[in-house]
Task: structure prediction
Amino acid sequence: MTTDDSMTTDTDRAATTLHGLFEHQARRAPEAVAVRCGDAELTYGELDARAGRLAAHLARSGLAPGGRAAVALGRGTEVYVAMLAVLKAGAAFVPLEPTAPDALLRHVLADAAPELVLTEERHRVRLADAGGAQPVCVDTLALPDGEFQCPEVAPGDLACVFYTSGSTGLPTGALVEHRNLLAAYAGWREVYGLTPEDRILQTASLEFDVFTADWVRALGTGATLVVAPFNLTLDRTADLAALPALVTEERITAMELNVRTARRLTALLSATGGSLPGVRLLTVGAEKWYLDEQLGLQRLLGDGTRVLNVYGLAEATVDSTYFDVRGAAAAEGAERVSLVGRPFPGTRIYVLGPHATPVAPGRVGEIAIAGSGLGRGYLNRPADTARRFVRADYDPDGRVLLTGDLGLLRADGVLEFVGRASTVVGRLGAERATSVATRVKAAARAEGALRAHPAVQEAAVVEVEPSPGQRLMVGYAVPVQGPPDAVDGWSLTQYLLTELRGYSTPAAVITVPELPRTRAGKLDRTKLPLPAPPKHTAPRSAKAGGSRKGGGKAGGGANNTTEVTGCLALFITVVTTILTRALTDNFFPGSTDLSAVPPEYHFWFGLLYFCECAAFGTGLAFLFLGLPAVLRQGRSLRLSLLTHFSVFWLLASWWPQDNLYRLAKPTDWPRQTALVYVFNIPLMLAAVVVVIFLLQKPKTTKK
Result:
């Protein structure tokens, strides 16, 4: 390590503000290139000076320490001047994509209530219409020379407000302090091995937390931030083929992509035989990324590149865990698991059970995040803060963030991401939390099995609500490129029935040309097509119905299987009833003797004996075929198995019980007592189990 590197590290550790971290790099190497976008670039000295002059103007315009200013600028170098200027003025910046939909702009500006909006002349009118804050157009602003004395800022002061993607409702402002970003930076620097020689590529959009993470990593280290001229996150028409050339031309060493872009990049490199020369670090996040995909991209890029799967939330300062796939062998079932690894330094990860307490390794629960990167809470959302940021006696800080994601800690300490819960699990009752976890695990298992099909390129399994109060688990598959109708929803549904052995199988699989995405590149569940009604579903030809956008082919194999199971159950019941009635006198001689019964009652007693035999036959059919139906109700495995046996006992015990009672003398107390404890008491207990099962049925709620 050189003397300069030692000084950098010492000063980095002593920095108490985000802009202070940058200012040290500007003093250390003012001539080094800080930001580059196309032919435009700013050195550290130029960026620091321009940010200082803009900060002075913002202070004169009414931006006071502790205030907020929205930054809504296009791709270029000025956006970094603006964010640093807001920080130097002692305020917090709110990153806002100026090309976002009007509804999103209005919501963020109304919720954040910034004192100023830093933008460009071309966006001024639109942003002025969306909110009442004073616009400051940095591209037409004449800034006088002069020094600006930054106000005193504490580590616990607000640095920025990240607005979440809004996947579970309206976007919410996550409050992130200077110390949170400094702690996150320290973890990135240690794990990523950041140095001033790095050239970090930025492809994310301004509104996403990764955008801020990219420039903090670069400008906090003294590296060069290279801004891609295209926006791979929002611009769906952007030509990904230009990325390898850009990486080579700009000598990129580190970059982060979302999962959707990483998949497209993998396909491009596989088809062209290309690579990303010089890139030593590639991180991928924002959505579930499977181990086989990570291994595949690692093989394409070679051992000289670290390919990391990262996981985190804006509320916990972007990234909380990472998984380095180098050295990992291609394990069986890699297409069914997503490993997000171990926590960054300063971060702690827990997996919580139904009572919001840590569970043992290997058990699925809600992922909770704690540590120095944990933000302050939500802007204008005290109720949400209480629900998501909760007290935790098991954590040294006594506070954790409930993510709403399910995972499990493996025996080796690696965190496995299972799936996204529709609601926060840790604060629910034990029964409902168990039900949510069961449904998420079932969907994750089905999705992994669907991805494993050789004709499927991409897949998702989610719960949809085709009608109020009705929940269905539906699979969506993007077929690999090939002849039309090479694979369809019906055949994929049959495949899942075989793979999953009937347990928690999607009601249908719909083939779609691509999965709909949100602005953040995540799966947009609201735009998935609904399955066709069962009566309209036919193999290889049924079109997906529903009122949502999108299209595809739906399969109704689950309905066919239900019919087959029903026929088999009826067959078992009929055959067993006949055999049971025929063998009654062999097992219980004299129990059905009606010689002492008046002739007019013979029919009724004979009907009773037949019904006992039919109940026994039905019970056996349920014993052999009824367990999948019980498991599909979403209760815990223990309660489901107990209920399955209880229903069998309630049905099947009538035949031996009544026959033995009829053969026992009323005064044979030892035999009467044994019959009561062998049959009657278990019958009552079985009824209690069924009642508990019914009472614990989750209430139907809309997403």
About this structure: The radius of gyration is 32 Å. Confidence is low (pLDDT under 50) at residues 1-11, 423-431, 536-551, 698-703.
